[in-house]
Design brief:
alpha+beta; Alpha-Beta Plaits; 3 domains; four-stranded antiparallel sheet
């Protein structure tokens, strides 16, 4: 599995992520073709090599003709939703932009649809977010990891006046993520950078076991005693069983309208829950009840607990860390009589275990009328082992 590790030794921003991806060899023409599916204009992208102290990297500058920088969140989300972007790119981009909008909504106590995004409402933010997701896909990246994030010190000037570093939206997005101070004065992590990395990273810590293939540097726009660079390390994850930790949140509920459970599940998945399930149980006095279980990335626990408290009758939850052991896996596309279909392949001691993607099999079965079991069998038989 091809992975990337962002070594944020002196911060992270949207343009630094893009710069690091181009420094790794991202093809500008292919990237531009995909980005054009957004259907927006009024900007140019300047890409050039730049030195920061002793390091050379790639600088990406989004030059915007449209000076509007205070769009409503709904307007930005509609731009992406109504675009011709591939569904997977659209989905991930919307998740990032929605998280950024939710952070601003929480800070200003405004409904998400009505919140104004000032510095975050410009075309450059949309290009940073969507362009980063496109770049990761074109490079074939299947897993993203990050170091803990250094946050700066001092104050910055914004549309809301002088604010402390990290900016309120940034610190909201960094809930549950390990951060530290490296002593630099100024903004090291921007809201866009925080929104992207907090949404797409599998974890924040030391570099995973990786066979390094390429290293890229994305240049920032500021000058510090330490180079304002983001280092991206790309390679193959070591093909052994992988260990990780998640957090399980569970709660027993016996006094809630059952119609709420479907909505609750959707909300939790939208915010990044890895899994959500309900178990029928009996509580004291033989009362029928439901046990809600949520498997969460460690850095999203607070967000998901907040939703549980807001959307259910619960006034308390249980939280505990669990260790997860995963087989190495990859997703490949295979040709079938009905077009391409995705297949997940995992390995145990080098022996593959093949599982066709359910959504692809369902779509084929509904379109052709062929029983889904036969579709799965045919797709499995076409996987090269």
């Amino acid at each position: 599995m091809k992975a990337i590790y962002f070594d944020c030794f002196n911060g992270i921003s949207g343009d630094m992520i893009l710069g690091a991806l181009f420094d790794l060899g991202l093809d500008k023409e292919a990237w531009s073709r995909e980005l054009n599916k957004l259907g927006i204009s009024g900007y140019t992208v300047k890409i050039e090599r730049k030195r920061k102290g002793p390091l050379m990297g790639t600088d990406v500058n989004i030059i915007v003709e449209d000076k509007i920088t205070h769009r409503h969140a709904k307007e930005i989300l509609d731009i992406v939703s109504n675009s011709r972007l591939d569904d997977d790119i659209k989905e991930k981009s919307l998740k990032i932009l929605t998280r950024i909008a939710q952070a601003e909504s929480s800070i200003h106590n405004e409904p998400l649809e009505e919140v104004h995004l000032h510095e975050l409402g410009g075309i450059d933010t949309i290009v940073d977010v969507v362009g980063s997701i496109i770049g990761l896909k074109l490079l074939g990246i299947e897993a993203v990891y990050s170091s803990p994030l250094p946050i700066g010190e001092g104050f910055i000037e914004t549309a809301h006046g002088k604010l402390p570093v990290p900016a309120p939206a940034t610190i909201e997005l960094l809930k549950g993520i390990p951060v530290y101070s490296n002593g630099m004065k100024g903004e090291l992590v921007t809201p866009t950078g925080a929104g992207i990395i907090s949404t797409i990273s599998y974890g924040f810590g030391p570099i995973p076991t990786l066979t390094i293939e390429k290293i890229g540097y994305g240049a920032g726009k500021k000058e510090f005693p330490i180079p304002n660079m983001l280092r991206a390390i790309m390679g193959e994850l070591y093909q052994e069983k992988q260990r990780d930790t998640n957090t399980i949140i569970d709660v027993n509920i016996d006094d809630m309208n059952p119609q709420v459970y479907g909505y609750l599940m959707d909300r939790l998945f939208e915010l990044g829950a890895l899994d959500v399930f309900f178990t029928p149980i009996y509580m004291k006095k033989s009362r029928p009840a439901v046990k809600l279980t949520v498997i969460s990335p460690n850095h999203l626990v607070d967000k998901l607990v907040e939703v549980i408290f807001k959307e259910t009758t619960s006034i308390g939850v249980r939280i505990y860390r669990v260790e997860k052991i995963m087989l190495p896996r990859e997703v490949v596309e295979v040709d079938t009589p009905w077009g391409t279909a995705r297949v997940k392949i995992s390995y145990i001691n080098g022996t593959p275990k093949v599982m066709p993607e359910y959504d692809d099999c369902k779509a084929i079965a509904e379109k052709t009328g062929i029983p889904i079991q036969e579709v799965m069998k045919e797709i499995t038989s076409r996987v090269k082992r």
